[in-house]
Amino acid sequence: MAPTLSQLKHNFEVMANPEQAVILQRFFKTGPGQYGEGDVFLGIKVPPQRTLAKQYGDLPLDDVASLLQSKIHEHRLTALLILIQKYEKADAGSRKKIFDLYLKYRKWINNWDLVDLSAPNIVGDYLLDKDREILYTLAQSKSLWDKRIAILATFEFIKHGHAEDTFAVAEILLNDDHDLIHKAVGWMLREVGKRIDQATEESFLQKHYRRMPRTMLRYAIERFSPALKKKYMAR
Q1: Minimal CB count within 10 Å: which of 1, 52, 78, 109?
Q2: Tens digit of each residue's pLDDT (9 = 90 or more) over 199-224
Q3: pTM: predicted TM-score of the whole model, two decimal places
Q4: Are 188 and 151 in contact (CB under 8 A)?
Q5: Beta strands, E only, 33-135
Q6: With DSSP H G I counted as helix, E B as strand and the rest as coil, what are the percentages for the chain, rounded to 5?
Q7: Neighbours of 204 (CB within 10 A)
């Protein structure tokens, strides 16, 4: 008998750890006015969720979409893990359905771990050989998570040796006021230096480092020599 959504939810209930949930809710800033305000955790770590995702990888796409709209963080994360698995095995038409579903329900992809594990694998991979205008729309959104999806999606391009969209999205986000965007942009710039070459990264930094938020810059130059770090941080 094929596994069902109700069975999966029962597994979550059995695995719940209230003490761990308290720790995770604090870690993911779920308090009033914080970026994860109102997010609900069961207290299940990621490795067991990966195991569940493999066990329930054949759930119908409609059930996965339903799980993605849950108020419970672990439900949403596992839904994304299942979506990634489905995407990797899918043909071109099915990949488009998964990409479209991801964008349609992205308001529930609303914490940094959810974005980071999924945006490169689904959005970035789908757009590798397609028009990328959607990334620029997301980068100019008022939503913190739309903006993080936009920059994290370019990680897949970096892995294929292309930094142009990373730089273009980063330029849009240079003046963003949120620390999670500063960290994400700096991280992607660092990956350009690591996976393509440092000279390519520095071509962007030379134009913009003087006005970059310090957190963004620190992340971007993390792999530089101490002397070069000092030069950039001195501005």
Answers
A1: 1
A2: 999 999 999 999 999 999 999 999 99
A3: 0.96
A4: yes
A5: none
A6: 70, 0, 25
A7: 20
